[in-house]
Amino acid sequence: MSRRPVAVFALAPWAHRDVFPPDLVTRLRQLVDIDPATTFTSFEGPAAAAALAEADILLTGWGCPRIDADVVAAAPRLRVVVHAAGTVKARLDPVVFERGLVVSSAAEINAVPVADYTMAMLVLGAKRAFSRARRYATAGEDTPRDWLAGDGTGLHDCTVGVVGASRIGRLVLRRLRSFDVEVLLYDPYVTAAEAASLGVERVGMDDLCRRSDLVTVHAPALPETHHMLDARRLELLPDGAVVLNSARGSLIDTEALTRLCVDGRISAILDVTDPEPLPPGHPLFSLPNVLITPHLAGAQGREVRTLGEFAVAEVGRYLKGMPLLGRVEPAQLPYIA
């Protein structure tokens, strides 16, 4: 009798519970042998060593320990890592690929709520909803509390600059087709023909900043993208522009952004910051033209089970010899978010 594949959970207990609820664990156990109650956040110790020695499949996620040469050496049967979360960049040593392991990530699934968040914030940001709501709530007796004129607001007929045709960036581009907007794209890896197929105008970063009413950032954190929105480029933005960052905080120069937001020349919507979190009392927290959310754009609450559904389906595809929908190639590792 052939041996059934053995899988091991390696993710934080809260993620284990939320990403893999009981019905998904039941579905998973139809495919593999797995201890449904055990998950590892460290590969140190005899229990982890025993589990790694038998594992054919690692099911990882938020809180997973790094998979390095020692882990690979301790797991001679390991063939595939299925990551039930977004990026695997910080989780994998390149030795994983050198050993010939297959890696899959649910990044495409996690991209969906980020794109939805982005569109919601673009609509609200274009209406100046956050600053106008603050003014409405704090109006004094002599200040009108009813309708406030929305001159120059609204997403209609705006120019939206999208920085990065990443998974999330492409989903945002697709959603923007439903709006009457001009869309600019900066991505040095996108050809003119590809930009045309996406229905956008490919431009340089400076040109995007000069022309955009709203700028939304969807690029990875790399040495060459550090502070890509620096003081000089932020100064290029038109008066009243809105900057939205749901990617990585290091892409924007926080000091320069703060200065322009304090002046009231531009507004910002930030789901990520640099540093993250910002220190208590940071000026950005108190500005009426700035909204900061606590890195919540990705899968949250009811959304996280979609990551588990994807991971279980990937295990099924792998065992049937089918292509993995979330496969991560070695050459992608340095450039993903």
TrEMBL record:
Pfam families: 2-Hacid_dh_C. SUPFAM superfamilies: Formate/glycerate dehydrogenase catalytic domain-like, NAD(P)-binding Rossmann-fold domains. GO terms for cellular component: cytosol. The keyword Oxidoreductase applies. One of its GO terms (molecular function) is NAD binding. Keywords: NAD, Oxidoreductase. Residues 121-297 form the D-isomer specific 2-hydroxyacid dehydrogenase NAD-binding domain. The keyword NAD applies. It comes from the Bacteria. This is Phosphoglycerate dehydrogenase-like enzyme. It comes from Saccharothrix ecbatanensis.
